[in-house]
């Protein structure tokens, strides 16, 4: 039972959900399909790889800066009631981005698909994640 709880906490902290697993599995299928059956489609072009890496690094940085800035006010669960110790964070990255966790996740997710040169999943991730 203890190991099951730890695994649940671990996957929740990394946002590894069933939907995420399906999305990433789909992106790998698209990548493999295009590599095998559409060899003329450029999968190793330097420009999308660079853009994808920049999006991934920027998205991950935005998310982590948001977590660090919010400190104890940050949570992975949506809060429906204000707790006495919680304060609205309006400094740091929160001055410019209201939800750096979500914004960083969106940029990171789309960046992974740009990096893989997956046009279908890039569009699908942009629609579903936002």
Topology:
Layout: H1 2-13, H2 18-37, H3 46-70, H4 100-115, H5 119-129
3D architecture notes:
The chain has 130 residues and is mainly α. It has helices at 2-13, 18-37, 46-70, 100-115, 119-129. Helix 3 (46-70) packs antiparallel against helix 4 (100-115) and helix 4 runs antiparallel to helix 5 (119-129). The model is unreliable at 1-6 (pLDDT under 50). The chain has one domain (2-129).
Summarize the structure.
It is built from five helices and no strands. It is mainly alpha-helical and 130 residues long.
Q: What would the principal axes of the Cα set say about the shape?
A: elongated
Count of the domains: 1
N to C succession of SSEs:
HHHHH
Helix and strand composition category: mainly alpha
* Share of helix, binned: 55-70%
Low-pLDDT windows of residues: 1-6
Biggest β-sheet strands, sense, barrel: none
Q: Report the β-strand fraction as a percent range.
A: under 5%
């Amino acid at each position: 039972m203890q190991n099951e709880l730890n695994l649940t906490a671990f996957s929740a902290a990394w946002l590894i959900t069933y939907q995420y697993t399906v999305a990433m599995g789909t992106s790998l299928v698209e990548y493999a399909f295009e590599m095998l059956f559409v060899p003329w489609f450029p999968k190793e072009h330097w420009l999308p790889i660079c853009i994808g890496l920049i999006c991934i690094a920027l998205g991950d940085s935005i998310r982590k800066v948001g977590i660090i800035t919010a400190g104890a006010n940050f949570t992975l669960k949506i809060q429906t009631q204000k707790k006495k110790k919680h304060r609205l964070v309006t400094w740091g990255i929160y001055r410019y981005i209201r939800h750096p966790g979500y914004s960083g996740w969106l940029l990171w997710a789309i960046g992974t698909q740009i990096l893989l040169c997956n046009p279908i999943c890039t569009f699908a991730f942009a629609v579903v994640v936002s």
